Amino acid sequence: SALFNFQSLLLVILLLICTSTYVHNVAPSMLDSRKDGVLGIFWKSARVGERLSPYVSLCCVAMAASLFVGT
Asked: Most buried of 29, 39, 42, 53, CB within 10 angstroms?
């Protein structure tokens, strides 16, 4: 489970950020109308992905390298 394994939790968070950012770039109205509530998590993660994209991409590369090496 992703809750008990820290590497899996980081992977889920990275995938959430990257997917939300992609969806917001393709269809902005889909996330902009849902800024509040539980679905606001997707809008917030899209903002993180847009504003911190160099750091998110470095984290994705580091995660890919760690999964490739197997540590």
From this structure: 42
Q: Give the separation between CA 54 and CA 38, rounded to whole angstroms.
A: 27
Reference 46, options 7, 67, 8, 16; nearest CA is 16
Cβ-contact 1, 11 below 8 angstroms:
no
Sign of the dihedral defined by the CA atoms of residues 16, 22, 24, 27, in that order? negative
Long-range contacts of 1-9 (CB under 8 A, 24+ apart): 7/63, 7/66
Per-residue model confidence as pLDDT tens digits over 1-45: 556 788 888 889 999 999 999 998 898 888 878 788 888 888 889
Which H or E element spans position 24?
Answer: helix 6-26
